[in-house]
Amino acid sequence: MTLPWTPGPLDNSVAVITGAARGQGRSHAVALAQQGADIIAVDICADIDGIPYPLGTEANLDKTARLVEATGRKVAPVVADVRDLQQLEAAVQTGIDQLGDIDIVIANAGVVAMGDAQTHSESVFNAIVDTNLKGVWHTILATVPSIIRKGRGGSVVLVSSSQGLTGRGGDGSAAMFAYAASKHGVVGLMRSAANAYGPHQIRVNSIHPGGVATPMIINDFVINRMTENPNPAVTQTLLPGVPLVEPQDVTAVVLWLVGPGARYVTGVSIPVDAGHVVM
């Protein structure tokens, strides 16, 4: 069978990835670079009040940059908080000045406070919603004008969660309410953006990982709280023996969505969760 498109690398493209210092963001950055993309790697490189585990650091972001450079591609590592639109726009512009206008956006930055049992913590609720939902909107605002200006279309992937498709595992805490609400909200952003930017040949999709083996889940706070108060509904999957998916499993879907094989795919939500949302 002859495919209507020719699979190939992402040469001469520029990708913006938020939350790039470690975890899924680093995995996406290195894989896209291996396919030929130059990378604008964005991360807050600081902790956030209300989030009970350490976030990525400048040393982590530097390591991501070195791994991208090892592929032979260019990288512009920039520090910015996705909650602050002006700061994010300035950081993205720094990357554009170095690498050129954008083709691909991976809005990956996100936080969680799984295991925090507080029900009335507005600081936790706001930290999660401001990062996971407002931060994604800010990322769209800071990047899509560059794609439009470049004039050859592009691909935007919004990283939601399996909790953006189901309320399973809800425990009444501010943390879980905020996480599920923010990740559901990403789907609304995706659908609205797919309609808004379709005339510019910009495809917008969301992906929905289950629990991923990254520092967001594998940290002392989450592990201790989940051990003390296990919630099987959070981790239960249809496929047996898959407690957590790996970052590269999510990256494989990202690579497909930004590549030529998905040239007519827009406005869809794709779970990468071993069947969590269909249980």
TrEMBL record:
Keywords: NAD, Oxidoreductase. InterPro entries: NAD(P)-bd_dom_sf, SDR_fam, SDR_subfam_1. It holds the Pfam family adh_short. One of its GO terms (molecular function) is oxidoreductase activity. Belongs to the short-chain dehydrogenases/reductases (SDR) family. PANTHER family: DEHYDROGENASES, SHORT CHAIN, ESTRADIOL 17-BETA-DEHYDROGENASE 8-RELATED. This is 3-ketoacyl-ACP reductase. It comes from Mycobacterium asiaticum.
